[in-house]
Amino acid sequence: MKTHRTRILAVFFTILLAVGLAGCGSSGSDKASSSGKTEITLALWDANQKPAMEEMSKAFMKENPDIKVNVELTPWDQYWTKLQAAATGGNMADVFWMSPEQIFTYAQGDALLDLNDKIKTDKFDMTKYPKNLVDALKVDDKQLAIPKDNSTVALWYNKDLFDKAGVSYPDDTWTWDTWMDAAKKLTNKKAGVYGMLAPNNGQNFTYNLIYQNGSDFFTKDGKKSLYDSPKTIEAVEYGTEFIKNGYSPSIAGFSNTTPDQYFESGKAAMVTAGSWMNSEYLAVDGLNVGVAPMPKKADHGTISAGMGYSIAAKTKNPDAAWKFVQYMGGKDANLIQSKSGAAISAYDGTQQPYVDKFPSIDAQVFVDAAKYGHSSYMVPSRADWLSMEEDMMINIFSGQISAKKGCTELAKQINDVIANQK
Predict the structure, then answer these.
(1) Which of the residues 10, 46, 229, 359 has the least number of beta carbons within 10 Å of its own beta carbon?
(2) CA dihedral angle for residue 198, residue 199, residue 201, residue 205, rounded to 10 degrees
(3) CATH code for the domain defined by 152-303+378-420
(4) C-alpha to C-alpha distance for 208 and 259, rounded to whole angstroms
(5) CATH code given to domain 38-151+305-374
(6) How far is the C-alpha of 403 from the C-alpha of 50, rounded, in Å?
(7) Comma-separated ranges of CATH 3.40.190.10 domains in the chain
(8) CA-based nearest residue to 308, from 133, 189, 156
(9) CA–CA distance, 313 with 35 (Å, rounded to integer)
(10) pLDDT tens figures, 294-317
């Protein structure tokens, strides 16, 4: 899972979407190609997942010979630009991957088909997916995508470094105290080895700490930031302690070397990273790793977020697109996806093939993390305060401002944004 969102882009493309879609019409019934088949396109951004998407599409076409599916890959760095341009021009792919971070922008531009009526008519069972994933793909109670996968975060560790330091491997009994103590024992300044990597990264690190401490980002009504709550401040303070104690590289150190580079080169004993890193870490020659649940304070809290399948609001093939999305969101397709190892399928009971794909680690940890996963930081106002959060967290993690002062000021900035929204 990757993040890419700015206020300027969100506002700019919301306007473009509204203007572009205003003049775009739809027939309401599917259009057949010259071959007599209805052709639809699935747009995606991950080359590693394309083979699985093609296999799933072929299985669908075998069951639906009157529909042809074209799988279209666009790299992440170009995906959203291309999708936004297609929306303004009225020629979006029929079906496309949608991120919870981007869904508010496209919802404001009326670019996504509301699936509620189709779900109700066909009795499509949404209880088969984690509730937080279903809710993350909703805007104003409109279901704008069907969950595809679930990405969670866990604690990766270097077994060789643990063995050398005589520290027991992490497990589900670890607490924040255990974690900090282990980081101290694993840090070897002479060898240039850090016990723990504590980057200024919400998705991979800080957000998880906030959930672990029993806090959240907003009150339940979404109208007030909780960044200034004692538990949130405590969580951010805890994250910075790894740096202050010298157990983690500084912000300056991370500017020259990424967390993945530290970990993959054997210069760090622990890192919090997502289920999407399995293939990369396990492919590093000589890197002997394991994975454990997130250490616990009030809970094992972790980010739990995935993408979904959306349908263009103005697709010329609404029936075929919905039939395809139903299949892609169903059990058979999710089993194919899990077997590929590229992602943890969101559909209940289809995760075991994913676990079996990685026998050298306890991949079940990532599946179980969904039980205490959160995605509540995905809110409509996020685009308007994300840059504020990024700037403040840099100041906090670099030691320029205390966690208490920085988080309190950030909460005020976010609340001002919410108050000024119409």
Answers:
(1) 359
(2) -10
(3) 3.40.190.10
(4) 16
(5) 3.40.190.10
(6) 42
(7) 38-151+305-374, 152-303+378-420
(8) 133
(9) 25
(10) 999 999 989 888 899 999 999 999
